[in-house]
Design a protein that fits this description.
Length: about 100
């Protein structure tokens, strides 16, 4: 059985990989969905996790030379920022722990 920390980390990592794969022209093959994730479970993120995800996407985008592909990855980071500022989305996906 996976530890609680490992189970909590898998969905965030999967989200980051999927965000990057959407705009990556180099990845032509579709990956099979990870069977360990239960799609019926709603995942709630902490604000720190969302900030880390956006930083990860920005760092990944900046690893490309200037041009079309880099701009596409930067656009993903801009879209994530807009999504994370959306109050309705935050109410549904961000946990309110102290």
């Amino acid at each position: 059985m996976a530890s609680v920390a490992h189970v909590a980390y898998i969905p965030l990592r999967a989200l980051a990989v999927n965000v990057i794969a959407i705009c990556s022209r180099a990845r032509r093959k579709r990956r099979k969905p990870d069977s360990t994730l239960d799609p019926r479970v709603e995942r709630l993120y902490s604000p720190d996790e969302l900030t880390e995800l956006r930083r990860y996407v920005l760092r990944y985008a900046r690893s490309f030379p200037r041009g079309y592909e880099r701009n596409q990855h930067l656009q993903v980071a801009v879209s994530l920022r807009a999504l994370f500022k959306n109050e309705k989305w935050r109410r549904d996906h961000v946990r309110n722990d102290s």
